[in-house]
Amino acid sequence: DIQMTQSPSSLSASVGDRVTITCRASQSVSSYLNWYQQKPGKAPKLLIYTASDLQSGVPSRFSGSGSGTEFTLTISSLQPEDFATYYCQQSYSTPLTFGGGTKVDIK
Amino acid sequence: QVQLVQSGAEVKKPGASVKVSCKASGYTFIGYYMHWVRQAPGQGLEWMGWINPNSGGTNYAQKFQGRVTMTRDTSINTAYMELSGLRSDDTALYYCASILQALDALDFWGQGTMVTVSS
């Protein structure tokens, strides 16, 4: 199984901050890396697919980059509605696997 | 519009089985695999497997092999996930999800079904 490791596991930030979350895969997943946002009591919401493609309807302040084993999710200017938990997920091979999550809360 | 509507919360005793349903609407049900993902309270996301609604073919995570069965009823556009031999650590929110538009990413999710295993 491909292990996905996210860092940090949590971070505190202020509105307007630039936030970067890292995801590392235990082996290459090419560009088959997706990012989700989850708010309490809600299903995950797809933000970025295939490493850098922005899902329809997602604000352009979200961006993704990377390939192979190292990926980043960047929020260019954090907004109040962005406080949530973020997960990476590889779709290169089954079993699909998720990172442990990064909780972004208010500083 | 696309909707995945899941069945309601369940409380089960250890050793019992649970069957969760996921009714799809707004798209061609048999055209897209249905995945199941679970999330224990306060924990991360765990993929359980998928079913091909067209053929009925399945692909289960090894962790759940022998305990999980995914089926579908194409006449009512509904997928099912049955988990047997329930243990307390199966207490979780169970989601169905599908890949409809985004390449290889779960872009539509059900609302989740809470399954509580308690004696």
Report what the structure shows:
- The complex is a heterodimer of chains A (107) and B (119).
- With 107 residues, chain A is mainly β.
- Chain A contains no helices and 11 strands.
- Chain A has strands at 4-7, 10-13, 19-25, 33-38, 45-49, 53-54, 62-67, 70-75, 85-90, 97-98, 102-106.
- Chain A starts with a strand and ends with a strand.
- Chain B is an all-beta fold and 119 residues long.
- Helices cover 0% and strands 48% of the residues of chain B.
- Chain B has strands at residues 3-6, 10-12, 18-25, 34-39, 45-51, 58-60, 68-73, 78-83, 92-98, 108-109, 113-117.
- The interface between A and B is medium-sized, with 23 and 24 residues.
Label this structure with key terms.
heterodimer; A: mainly beta; 7-stranded mixed sheet; B: 119 residues; 4-stranded antiparallel sheet; 11 strands; 48% strand
